[in-house]
Every structure is written in structure tokens, then in C-alpha cells.
Specification:
Helix content: 10-25%
CATH topology: Jelly Rolls
Bound molecules: fe (ii) ion
Shape: globular
Radius of gyration: 16 Å
Number of domains: 1
């Protein structure tokens, strides 16, 4: 296996074991490599936004998050980046500036029946509109900061190491302001159903 992928799997496994919220969300622990995870190959497909990752900051509280940030950056040239919302009526600027690649799941380096795992990147000043999906979701911030919106809740701003949970089917949105953001996103249940915009006018 490519050393950058070995490193990525090790860094993700360490975060799953060492981050309490993530550990509770999906029991991945140290069984990741030997568990139900099958290696799969896809042609790499990079995007322009992959060149603009947020830097870790001195004093970011969780070394495991910083280590996974570094591993996702290193493996980025090997990934098949996604255009999740291509073909919808969203502004093409959003399609170009919103970055996501899959680590575990459809189009990712590994497949699993238990969970999907992605990295998401947003540059400063981008709004990821309201959307929902049947899968339950957890974001763990790896670098930068972003404002997270969940229907029925006040918005909250998260920085490296902090996590947010999105229940099944509940609309949510993300906004960056002065900082970029980078997050590790995991799904459980209903892994095969893609997100849809909450606003029917965007679909
Ligand atoms: Fe989501």
C-alpha cells in the first residue's frame, strides 16, 4: 500500500480511538485495518481547491486532529475528489470552491459496510447551504474554524478538535468567515443515500 495511505489509516484510527465523541459515534477503534475495511482503487482526480488547505495553528488543542489533517493533505493527490452537488442548481462557484474526498466509502481508498469517512475543505467566506441526508453524521474539525447550523439549534463556531453531530434527516449548513476549515466527516447508517439540498429550488 502507498505509504501515504498507510499513514492516513493510522492517523484516522488514532483519532477514532482518542476522540471521545467520535469513539462514541462509531466504534472503529484499533480494528480499522483488520476489520471490515476493504482496499479499493480508483483513478486519482484532483481539484484546484486541494492546493489551499488550512494550516494547523500553534496551540491547536488536539494533536491527533493535526496529525490527521497532515495525513489527508499528504494523501490528497491520490484521491478521487468528489463533486457531490454537480448537476444541481447550486452556484458553480460553490462546486469549484467546496472540496471533499472520500477516505472510506464510495470512491474512497477503502470500503466499509459500517461507516463512511471523508475530508471536507472550505475556503474562507463560503456558505454550504442547508441540506440533509438519512445517514447520521459527525464532523470533527481538523484545522481552521467554521460556523455550523443545525435546524432548531443556535449556530455554533467550531475549531480544531471540536465535533458536531447531525441527526438523520435534520437539515444543516456550514459557513466559513475569515478562516478556512477542514474537517473529518463520518457517516453511519444509510451510507448509500446521497445528500440533497433542503431548498427544492437548488435540486
Ligand atoms: Fe451532512
Amino acid at each position: 500500500m502507498h505509504p501515504d495511505l498507510t499513514h492516513l489509516m493510522a492517523a484516522a484510527t488514532a483519532l477514532h480511538a482518542g476522540h471521545a465523541d467520535l469513539r462514541d459515534f462509531v466504534a472503529m477503534g484499533n480494528d480499522l485495518v483488520d476489520g471490515d475495511y476493504q482496499r479499493q482503487d480508483h483513478p486519482a482526480q484532483a481539484v484546484m481547491c486541494a492546493q489551499h488547505w488550512p494550516d494547523a495553528r500553534p496551540g491547536d488543542p488536539l494533536e491527533l486532529a493535526t496529525a490527521l489533517r497532515d495525513a489527508f493533505v499528504a494523501a490528497a493527490p491520490l484521491a478521487q475528489w468528489r463533486y457531490t452537488y454537480e448537476g444541481s442548481k447550486i452556484d458553480p462557484d460553490f462546486i469549484e470552491r467546496f472540496g471533499c474526498y472520500c477516505m472510506i466509502g464510495s470512491g474512497g481508498f477503502w470500503s466499509s459496510a459500517q461507516l463512511s469517512g471523508y475530508v471536507v475543505y472550505m475556503p474562507p467566506g463560503l456558505h454550504y447551504p442547508w441540506h440533509q441526508h438519512p445517514a447520521e453524521e459527525m464532523y470533527v474539525m481538523l484545522a481552521g474554524s467554521a460556523e455550523f447550523h443545525l435546524q432548531g439549534q443556535p449556530p455554533q463556531t467550531l475549531t480544531a478538535g471540536q465535533a458536531v453531530f447531525h441527526p438523520s434527516g435534520v437539515p444543516h449548513a456550514t459557513t466559513t468567515h475569515d478562516d478556512p476549515m477542514m474537517a473529518y466527516v463520518t457517516w453511519r447508517n444509510h451510507l448509500d443515500i446521497v445528500p440533497e439540498w433542503t431548498d427544492p429550488g437548488l435540486r
